[in-house]
Amino acid sequence: MQLSRKADYALRAVAFIAQLEKGTLASIGKIALARDIPREFLAKILKELSRSGILVSFQGVTGGYRLARPPKEVTFLDVIEAMEGPVRVNLCVEGCHCDHEDGCEIRPFFIKQQEQIVKAMKRQNFGSINGMRT
Amino acid sequence: MQLSRKADYALRAVAFIAQLEKGTLASIGKIALARDIPREFLAKILKELSRSGILVSFQGVTGGYRLARPPKEVTFLDVIEAMEGPVRVNLCVEGCHCDHEDGCEIRPFFIKQQEQIVKAMKRQNFGSINGMRT
Fold it and tell me: Is A120 exposed, middle or buried (CB count within 10 Å of its CB: 0-12, 13-18, 19+)?
């Protein structure tokens, strides 16, 4: 039950991009270096974040990436779901996969945990991240 | 970021065993049938739960499994950690794996989520599970 390394890297990359001066673009090399992310893996992640509408990419020598919207309008949930799909803390949260839904002892617990973590991920955005560097 | 199927099955198996009359043993076949768990996978899980001190196994034709301690003394965290090792909602929760600990925007969020989910898993035991059948 752990966030994937891919989603962790995506959060770190977006956090870095979110701190750039308005109008500045971040190159793959710059992000990789600043956040210790393997370059090829990062390139794949940034492409997916662009396809998901979180980043905008600009081609060319002076190209790079910027956020598609203001940092405060990009949440941790947006980035995590772009990498992993819908957050489901247990398989059965979406729908019971066995025949014991009525008397289930497990599902109610995970539905509650799911609600709490999704709420927290939705509340946390890149305009208000803790310890944000200026 | 999802509980493994193995841990989910383990929770369901322990929930079933926790509801047995005191002194009753549950066979692999009975648990597998009652909770729709593939029998071979279940056998592996029950062995690991015994090794972790959560279950006690009895050999022989009339053998089977029972809890090693009262249901209220077995928590969801015990079972999940027996299957997956220590709960870490993100890699960096235990210790920062990059060079940005001082100004990290990501780690504080996951440390908080970690604390909350571990607390909830520790509080939830098999003597007080929701919807418990009698």
Answer: middle
Tokens of A88: 């489901």
ipTM: 0.88
Is A25 touching B (CB cutoff 8 A)? Answer: no
CB contact under 8 A, A104 and B7: no
Phi, psi of A26 (to 5 degrees): -110, 125
Question: pLDDT by residue (tens digit) across A27-52?
Answer: 999 999 999 999 999 999 999 999 99
The predicted-structure confidence for B73-125, as pLDDT tens digits, reads as follows 999 999 999 999 999 999 888 887 776 666 788 999 999 999 999 999 999 99
* Residues of chain B found within 8 Å of residue A132, distances taken between Cβ atoms: 103, 105
Three-state DSSP class for residue B126: coil
Q: Which two tokens stand for residue B117?
A: 């989910």
Disruptive mutation site among B106, B113, B116, B121 for chain A (greatest number of A CBs within 10 Å): B106
- Is the pTM higher than 0.90? The answer reads no
User: Within an 8 Å CB–CB cutoff, is residue B103 touching chain A?
Assistant: yes
Residue B102 confidence (pLDDT): 64
Q: Which of A3, A31, A115 to mutate to test the interface with B (most CBs of B within 10 A)?
A: A3
Q: How many other C-beta atoms are found inside a 10 Å radius of the C-beta of residue B116?
A: 15
Which chain A residues are Cβ-neighbours of B20 within 8 angstroms?
Answer: none
